[in-house]
Write a structure and sequence with these properties.
The complex is a heterodimer of chains A (538) and B (322).
Chain A: E1 29-32, H1 38-42, H2 49-57, H3 61-69, H4 75-81, H5 85-89, H6 101-114, E2 129-133, H7 137-148, E3 152-156, H8 165-168, H9 177-188, E4 193-195, E5 212-215, E6 221-222, E7 228-230, E8 235-238, H10 239-248, E9 258-262, H11 266-277, E10 282-286, H12 298-307, E11 310-312, E12 315-321, E13 324-333, E14 338-349, E15 352-355, E16 359-360, E17 393-395, H13 406-425, E18 457-458, E19 468-469, H14 473-480, H15 494-498, E20 504-506, E21 512-514, H16 524-528, E22 534-537
Parallel strand pairs in A: 2-3, 2-5, 3-4, 5-17, 7-12, 8-15, 9-10, 9-15, 10-11
Antiparallel strand pairs in A: 1-22, 6-16, 12-13, 13-14, 18-19, 20-21
Helix pairs in contact in A: 2-3, 2-14, 3-6, 4-6, 6-14, 7-13, 11-12
Chain B: H1 38-54, E1 58-62, H2 66-71, E2 83-85, H3 91-104, E3 110-116, H4 117-122, H5 125-133, E4 138-144, H6 185-191, E5 196-201, H7 205-216, E6 222-227, H8 231-234, H9 241-251, E7 257-260, E8 263-267, H10 276-280, H11 297-312
Parallel strand pairs in B: 1-2, 1-3, 3-4, 4-6, 5-6
Antiparallel strand pairs in B: 5-7, 7-8
Helix pairs in contact in B: 1-7, 3-5
Classes of the chains: A alpha/beta (538), B alpha/beta (322).
The structure holds flavin-adenine dinucleotide, thiamine diphosphate, iron/sulfur cluster (SF4) (4 copies) and magnesium ion (MG).
Flavin-adenine dinucleotide binds next to helix 7, helix 8, helix 11 and helix 13 of chain A.
């Protein structure tokens, strides 16, 4: 009501409309939410990508790295070898090209190594002892997380050096060994007892000294073939054996001038490109189906073709007779995935043939342990908490059913560590409900400007040094700024600025709050939130 | 970041007044505008910008219309600045008097007159033209929702051709508001050669704020015409007010430009010009243009207007605003 003390003609006091609580008009109610960014939802290591990109945007590189290594202790390695499913899921792909998440991760990982940022060593000790068999990505990841929980960790590794397929698979030109060594060292320095050159032959004999075991022995054995080989003028070797010899610098076979690689996966591509670097004059990949059916990643195939690798599709090796390799031409019914011999044949001259047709696990070490089952597909069976049929024995990475990537192996290591910790403490793991995914339809892209994606710069020379170049700090911040921040408020103030009723309050520190006393429920805030962080509910 | 949001946590400098945690909030909560009212939003943004640019030294006279009615229902008032209502058609004349009074008292209070499109283009036209012609020191802001909304959506001279209103119901003879009618007040203002004329949209708050802030500190007559979608009168969901405003700008139906002393000096180019149809289809007032028996020529008539705007104000890659 107007005050009598007001001068003539002044009827109402300022802002007295606040007595009218218009919030009672609403039928729909806005709510700030966190939706799951599609990148995060698809990262096999469970990284909070959106979060670390947002810190990188602010120039907080150290903080961004800390968020990364909260889920994955290998950012510099991942930034080089991960097949980045996150980028395929990235909403920006439907706008102007996915955020180059993998390249940013690599670049931040490199800054961390240059700056010698370390992991914290655990302050408390649980007194529990855990044995990890295999120092590949999965074993090392599990070791890192188990140390965080304060457990005592021992790793037995059969090879001279740790790293598993990151060292004995992924070639140097894709992953520099200095980077790999540094990231492994950082994990070991948290107090992991790593014993190399120690092959576990009978796990049964080791387990009594430990409270829990994690089997992370990978798929290190060459798959067998029944292709007939006559004479010994042609070098026949398995890709993984070749890589192992190359890495250990021992018993390197002579591949000669003309090399054939048999297989269509990433290992075949790596073997072919390695052969080129070892001095081969011609390298041909022999593959059964068409180039579009090759399981290898498109980018890798492109890189190989650019370097001069040839790909012979619809071809199967029938026999190796001296230096004559008999190749059967195939017919392929793509729709029904049926291969048949066409009858046409070819003879190709080769000094060596590299087999890259897959790896299998070493089951021998499990002998005598009750309960552990190996499936028909030749991998160890585990339950939802990564435990094998034997109590306290867990398994993960390539040795269990999975996609066989470094990233999945790391994700398994993290999950196994959590499960082992819960098991040792006698508690149940509670699965938290995953929030709804912030897909492209949930965004309002009218507020985003098109910006070209940062592409990888490459060293052109054919050598074993790394071909890809990391971004500088400034470049990586620029690329991080392209992130839409899907499903998570990035403080753009649209909701605050566009509410016709002034029903959103902003505090000095930027915190937003919806004032339901005045909000009429129009839904403008939700429609104009660029990143889908407001939900209307009835 | 190069994004066009209201604010940004990364580059605080270029943020709008609306993003400030301590913005003036000249039009406070509790007003009785409909849910999703574009006019209520535009008024807060415009007056906050003027307040910010003058350190609070403003006074307002409001013509009759939604804005006036929803902001002061006795005994409550939503304004946090000196504000008065006089009549439907005389706001410019009252403002002229207020500006003279301020000058006489030696006070540096900047005067704003404001009203809806009806109050501006129809009944207020005479007093507005007088204010322009005398170059009175007033900023006039027109909130254009393209009809007499407060009295139930009757046609005004700002109603687009072919739109349905309560008084232009589509029938056998007319497909809505008659083709060939209408008045363009920003152009009329330019013809008065006043110091400053601008158009603005709630789809571009930063631009709106800049124009108001610039206008309020210019001496003489200024005119800012703001496009304000009305969910009730235009027939679209309340959540789509900004979407509709954006669509009007992106198809060229509502060109954003500035003029000084009778000449257009700049316009905001449209990055990706969209067909008018995308804008029309969002609104029920144009729904009859897309019914089974509709004459496709009708949409073409509206497209002609948009295309002419794009050409005239050089909206595809034209003179960019500074
Ligand atoms: C050539 C090649 C290239 C690849 N490139 C990529 C890539 O670019 N990106 C990607 O994501 N994935 C890639 N992969 C797949 C990826 O390397 C594997 O999926 C991943 O390394 C599996 O991790 P892991 O820890 O389960 O097993 P591994 O990496 O295989 O590690 C197992 C470890 O256990 C040790 N071990 C085995 N048996 C015993 C035993 N009895 N006692 C003690 N130690 C033992 C092994 O020596 C080894 O160190 C590639 C694989 C190959 C072969
Ligand atoms: C002289 C006079 N005639 C008619 C009216 C009734 N009237 C009140 S508001 C209004 C319509 C206002 O339309 P507009 O100016 O476009 O503003 P809007 O409500 O659309 O924002 C009318 C006709 C009046 N108040 N005074
Ligand atoms: S835009 Fe950002 S948050 Fe969204 S999917 Fe891509 S990287 Fe993730
Ligand atoms: S814009 Fe304002 S009134 Fe509308 S739903 Fe959001 S908070 Fe409520
Ligand atoms: S509109 Fe902007 S400030 Fe509001 S919730 Fe969405 S991102 Fe955050
Ligand atoms: S009728 Fe339109 S202009 Fe009037 S208050 Fe409602 S939404 Fe706003
Ligand atoms: Mg009107």
């Amino acid at each position: 009501m107007s005050k009598s003390s007001n001068p003539f003609a002044i009827v109402d006091d300022a802002g007295t409309s606040r007595a009218n609580k218009t919030g009672s008009w609403k039928t729909m109610c806005p709510q700030y939410v966190h939706r799951m960014p599609p990148c995060n939802a698809t990262c096999p290591a469970g990284e909070n990508i959106q979060k670390w990109l947002s810190l990188a945007q602010e120039g907080k590189i150290r903080k961004a790295w800390e968020v990364m290594v909260n889920d994955n202790p290998f950012p510099a390695v991942m930034g080089r070898v991960c097949y980045h499913t996150c980028e395929r899921a990235c909403n920006r792909e439907q706008f102007d090209g996915a955020v180059h998440i993998n390249l940013i991760e690599r670049s931040i990982g490199d800054i961390a190594l240059e700056s010698e940022w370390k992991f914290e060593t655990p302050k408390e000790h649980s007194g529990k002892k855990i044995l990890i068999v295999g120092a590949g990505p999965s074993g090392l990841s599990a070791a890192y997380f188990l140390r965080k929980f304060g457990h005592e960790v021992t790793i037995y590794e059969s090879q001279i050096k740790s790293g598993g397929m990151m060292r004995y698979g992924v070639p140097r030109y894709r992953l520099s060994r200095a980077v790999l060594d540094a990231e492994i060292r950082r994990i070991i320095e948290t107090g992991v007892k790593l014993v190399c050159n120690k092959r576990v032959t009978h796990l049964k004999n080791e387990i009594d000294n430990f409270d829990a075991v994690y089997i992370a022995t990978g798929a290190f054995m060459a798959a067998k073939t029944d292709i007939e080989v006559k004479g010994n003028s042609c070098t026949v070797i398995d890709a993984v054996d070749l890589f192992k010899k190359l890495e250990n610098g021992m018993d390197m076979p002579n591949l000669g001038k003309h090399v054939l690689v048999y297989g269509g996966g990433n290992t075949a591509i790596d073997a072919a490109r390695t052969a080129l670097r070892l001095g081969a004059e011609s390298v041909k990949i022999v593959y059964r189906r068409t180039i579009n059916n090759m399981p290898a990643h498109k980018e890798e195939i492109q890189d190989a073709l650019k370097e001069g690798v040839e790909i012979l599709c619809l071809s199967c090796i029938g026999m190796i007779d001296g230096n004559n390799v008999l190749v059967n031409k195939m017919d392929y019914d793509e729709e029904n995935d049926i291969l048949s011999v066409s009858g046409e044949k070819d003879i190709i001259q080769a000094d060596s043939v590299i087999f890259a047709i897959g790896q299998s696990i070493d089951e021998g070490i499990l002998d005598g342990i009750d309960g552990i089952a190996v499936s028909e597909k030749g991998v160890i069976e585990i339950d939802k908490n990564m435990m094998t049929g034997a109590k306290g024995i867990f398994a993960g990475g390539d040795v269990v059913p999975c996609k066989r990537t470094v990233t999945h192996a790391i994700g398994h290591g993290k999950k196994a560590a959590k499960c082992i910790d819960a098991y040792l403490n006698g508690v149940e793991i509670t699965q938290n409900v995953k929030p709804e995914v912030a897909n492209f339809k949930k965004l309002n892209t009218a507020y985003y400007k098109k910006v070209a994606r940062a592409e990888i710069q490459k060293n052109q020379a054919l050598s074993f040094s790394e071909s890809d170049i990391s971004l500088t700090e400034r470049e990586l911040i620029g690329e991080a700024e392209r992130c839409f921040s899907c499903g998570n408020c990035f403080h753009c103030d649209n909701c605050y600025g566009l509410c016709p009723d002034g029903a959103i309050h902003k505090a000095e520190d930027g915190t937003l709050e919806i004032d339901l006393e005045y909000c009429k429920g129009c839904g403008i805030c939700a429609s104009e939130c660029p990143c889908g962080a407001i939900k209307m509910t009835s | 970041m190069s994004n066009s949001t209201i604010g940004s946590r990364l580059s605080k400098k270029k943020n709008s007044v609306q993003s400030h945690y301590d913005r003036p909030n000249t039009l406070s909560s509790g007003h009785r505008a409909c849910q999703g009212c574009g006019e209520a939003l535009a008024a807060r943004c415009a007056i906050d910008a003027a307040y910010h640019a003058t350190k609070g030294n403003i006074a307002i006279v409001n013509a009759t219309g939604c804005l006036e009615v929803f902001s002061c229902v006795f005994p409550e008032n939503a304004w946090n600045v000196p504000w008065m209502h006089s009549l439907f058609g005389n706001a410019p004349a009252v403002a002229t008097g207020m500006a003279a009074a301020m000058r006489a008292q030696g006070k540096n209070v900047r005067i704003i007159a404001q009203g809806g499109d009806g109050g501006t283009t129809d009944i207020g036209m005479g007093t507005l033209s007088g204010m322009f012609e005398r170059n009175d020191d007033v900023l006039y802001i027109c909130y254009d929702n393209q009809a007499y909304m407060n009295t139930g959506v009757q046609r005004s001279s700002a109603t687009p051709i072919l739109a349905r209103t309560a008084t232009t119901l589509p029938n056998a003879v007319y497909a809505g508001n008659e083709v060939g009618t209408g008045k363009n007040v920003p152009e009329i203002a330019i013809a008065h050669r006043i110091p400053y004329v601008a158009t603005a949209s709630i789809a571009n708050i930063k631009d709106l704020e800049e124009k108001v802030a610039k206008a309020i500190n210019i001496r003489g007559a200024k005119y800012v015409h703001i496009h304000v979608p009305c969910p009730l009168g235009w027939g679209y969901p309340t959540s789509e007010t900004i979407k509709v405003a954006r669509a009007a700008v992106e198809c060229g139906m509502f060109p954003l430009f500035e003029a000084e002393h009778g000449k257009v000096v700049g316009s905001t180019p449209i990055e990706n010009v969209k067909p008018v149809e995308e804008y029309l289809r969002l609104q029920r007032r144009f729904a009859h243009l897309f019914s089974k028996n509709a004459n496709p020529q009708a949409v073409e008539e509206l497209q002609k207007i948009a295309s002419a705007n794009i050409e005239k104000y050089k909206l595809s890659g034209g003179i960019a605003n500074v």
